[in-house]
Amino acid sequence: REDSDLLSGKVKKPGKRGRKPAKIDLKAKLERSRQSARECRARKKLRYQYLEELVSGRERAICALREELDMYKQWCAAMDQGKIPSEIKALLTGEEQGRAQQNAAKLAKSGKADANGSAPCKYPA
C-alpha cells in the first residue's frame, strides 16, 4: 500500500484527519467579512444601475412605438374618409423610384457576382 501511494504521488503525513482549527486573528476575519460586504454592495449597485438603464431604454422604445401607432391610426382614419395622407403618397412614390433604381442596377450587373462573393441584400440600406 505504501509503495502504491508513493508511485501515485500521494504522500500521507502523520497526524489528525480533517480540518484543522483556525488560528486566524478575529480582527482580520472581521475585516475580511466587511470587505466582502462592501464588494457585494458595489456589485449590487452596478447590477441595479444596469437594470435601470435597461428599463429606461425599453420605456423609450415603448413611447416611440406608441407614437408610431398613433400616426398609423391617424392615417387609417384619414383613409377611411377618402383622403390619402401625404406621407403615404411619399412612401409610395419613393418605393416606385427605389424599384426602378434596383431594376436598373440589376440590368447593369446582369449576372455579375458581388466583389466579395456574397449575395446582395434584398432590403434597401
Automatic annotation (TrEMBL):
<keyword id="KW-0010">Activator</keyword>
<dbReference type="GO" id="GO:0003677">
    <property type="term" value="F:DNA binding"/>
</dbReference>
<feature type="region of interest" description="Disordered">
    <location>
        <begin position="1"/>
        <end position="25"/>
    </location>
</feature>
<dbReference type="GO" id="GO:0030154">
    <property type="term" value="P:cell differentiation"/>
</dbReference>
<keyword id="KW-0221">Differentiation</keyword>
<dbReference type="GO" id="GO:0003700">
    <property type="term" value="F:DNA-binding transcription factor activity"/>
</dbReference>
<feature type="compositionally biased region" description="Basic residues">
    <location>
        <begin position="10"/>
        <end position="21"/>
    </location>
</feature>
<keyword id="KW-0804">Transcription</keyword>
<dbReference type="GO" id="GO:0005634">
    <property type="term" value="C:nucleus"/>
</dbReference>
<comment type="similarity">
    <text>Belongs to the bZIP family. ATF subfamily.</text>
</comment>
<feature type="region of interest" description="Disordered">
    <location>
        <begin position="102"/>
        <end position="125"/>
    </location>
</feature>
<protein>
    <recommendedName>
        <fullName>cAMP-responsive element-binding protein-like 2</fullName>
    </recommendedName>
</protein>
<dbReference type="Pfam" id="PF07716">
    <property type="entry name" value="bZIP_2"/>
</dbReference>
<dbReference type="InterPro" id="IPR046347">
    <property type="entry name" value="bZIP_sf"/>
</dbReference>
<feature type="domain" description="BZIP">
    <location>
        <begin position="26"/>
        <end position="75"/>
    </location>
</feature>
<dbReference type="InterPro" id="IPR039250">
    <property type="entry name" value="CREBL2/REPTOR-BP"/>
</dbReference>
<keyword id="KW-0805">Transcription regulation</keyword>
<dbReference type="InterPro" id="IPR004827">
    <property type="entry name" value="bZIP"/>
</dbReference>
<keyword id="KW-0539">Nucleus</keyword>
<keyword id="KW-0238">DNA-binding</keyword>
